Amino acid sequence: MRNFDLAPLYRASVGFDQIADMMDRVLTTETQTKTYPPYNIEKIDEDGWRISIAVAGFSDEDLGVEVKENSLLVTGRKADETTERSYLHRGIANRAFERRFHLADHVRVAGASHENGMLHIDLIREVPEALKPRQIAITRTEATPKDVVDAKAVN
Known about the structure:
- The protein folds into two domains: about 1-35, no CATH class; about 35-80 and about 90-130, Immunoglobulin-like (Sandwich), CATH 2.60.40.790.
- It is about 15% helix and about 30% strand.
- It has helices at about 5-10, 15-30, 150-155; strands spanning about 40-45, 50-55, 65-70, 70-75, 95-100, 105-115, 120-125.
- The radius of gyration is 28 Å and the shape is elongated.
C-alpha cells in the first residue's frame, strides 16, 4: 500500500481540513471493505438522496439511525434468541452491523422508514440563504465629464 504525506496540504492551505481529513481516511482504510449489509445510494433530485440498506430479519427495535458531526451511523443489533434452533443451512445473516456514512456540509437526514426488509434513509441538502448565489442589480449612473465646468459654479 502507498503512503501519502498530506502535511504539505495542511501547510499551504487554510479551510480545507475536511478534504484533507477525508483523503486521509480513504487512504488509511483497510483494503478489504465491509460488504454487510448491502446498500444502495440513489439520487432522488438535485438536492436529495436516499440510502437503502437491506436489513432482512431486523425489526424496527433492532435498528438505530444516528447523526453526529456530519456522520450518519446506522446500526443493527439483533436481540438474543432464547430458542435453540437447528439449521440445516443458514444463509440469512442476522449478525450485528454498523455502517457509517460521511455527510457533506448542509446535508441533513429528512427521515427514515423500514419496509419489506429495507431501511430507507432520506437525505436533503439545505444550503442557507447567506450561502446561495444572489443577483446584484446593476444601476446606471450619469457621469459628468471632468473637463466640463458647471456654468453656475463659475458665476
